[in-house]
Amino acid sequence: MYRLVVASAGLLAVLSMPAFAADPTVDVPMTAPGFDWTGYYAGLQAGYGWGQSDISGTEGGPFSVSPDINGGFVGGHVAGLWQFDQAVIGAEADLNYSSVNGTVEAEPGNNFGADIKWFGSVNAKAGYAMDRVLVYGIGGVAFAGIETSQSAGSAFSETRTNVGWTLGAGVDYALTDKFVVGAQYRYYDFGSEHYDGSTDFVGRDQDTKLNTVGVNLSYKF
Predict the structure, then answer these.
(1) Rounded to whole angstroms, what are the CA distances from 29 to 32, 33, 132, 183?
(2) For residue 38, which of 3, 84, 5 has the smallest C-alpha distance?
(3) What confidence tens digit (pLDDT) does each residue in 104-154 have?
(4) Quick one: CA dihedral 172, 173, 177, 180, positive or negative?
(5) Is 203 strand, coil or helix?
(6) Rounded CA separation 84/53 (Å)
(7) 0.85 exceeded by the pTM?
(8) How many CA atoms lie within 13 A of 11 on its CB side?
(9) What is the 8-class DSSP label of residue 130?
(10) pLDDT per residue as tens digits for the range 33-83
(11) E-assigned strand segments in 175-221
(12) What separation in angstroms does the CA of 20 have from each of 10, 25, 107, 176, 199?
């Protein structure tokens, strides 16, 4: 009887070995995957801008003035991103309503002004992802509706669409799998645009440059 019990125990031990061998990682913890930045995004941004607008004329008596400009902006953006390992590339477009403006008095009673009514850009974007953090650079074609004005007894104003370029950098953080917040710095050079003037005011060229800092909130589809 004793030998039968020992033999039976040995047989059970042998039969149980394949079961343990078939699932050797049953107690090994799995590592959760990181955040995937690949996707399409839409959202809002707001911030503050400052810069300078150089206004010059050569008709009649030459003049040159440079009003400082500053103010807030608010707008929206859309983007598409693709992640390869930790590299992220994509494209982004934005459009903003702006209250960035300023005036300068060239002489008593003769005021020049510049007013960025709106601005936007179409950009390429590239960055480095560290799980839920994305550090990136951005740049592309920029455009803006810029008004030039002058008040010297009577008043003159004209708005043109300027086209130039922009460069910047920023950082985004994925709060959840759907919502992303971030901060960004941008530099804009909207180039020089000619304004025709009027009966009382000579034509002029206006060259506008802008710096912005802002925050953004995006939804990932």
Answers:
(1) 10, 13, 22, 36
(2) 84
(3) 988 888 999 999 999 999 999 999 999 999 999 999 999 999 999 999 888
(4) negative
(5) coil
(6) 41
(7) no
(8) 6
(9) E
(10) 589 999 999 999 999 999 999 999 877 678 899 999 999 999 999 999 999
(11) 179-195, 204-220
(12) 16, 10, 92, 39, 95
Counting other chains too, the contacts that 128-133 makes at CB distance below 8 Å and 24 or more residues apart are: 128/86, 128/87, 128/88, 129/34, 129/35, 129/37, 129/83, 129/86, 129/87, 129/88, 130/86, 131/34, 131/35, 132/34, 132/35, 132/173, 132/174, 133/171, 133/172, 133/173, 133/174
Task: Measure the CA–CA gap between 184 and 43, rounded to whole angstroms.
Answer: 14
> Does the pLDDT value for residue 16 go beyond 70?
no
Q: How high is the pLDDT of residue 33? A: 56
Q: What is the chain's mean pLDDT, rounded?
A: 87
Residue with tokens 């043109």: 160
What is residue 203's predicted lDDT score, i.e. its pLDDT? 87
Backbone angles phi, psi at 153, to 5 degrees: 85, -75
**Helix, strand, coil tally for the chain in percent (to 5):** 10, 70, 20
Distance of CA 96 to the CA centre of its chain: 11
117 Cβ contact list (under 8 Å, min separation 6): 97, 98, 144, 145, 146, 147, 159
Query: How many residues are there in the chain?
Result: 221
| Token code pair at residue 142 | 């920029």
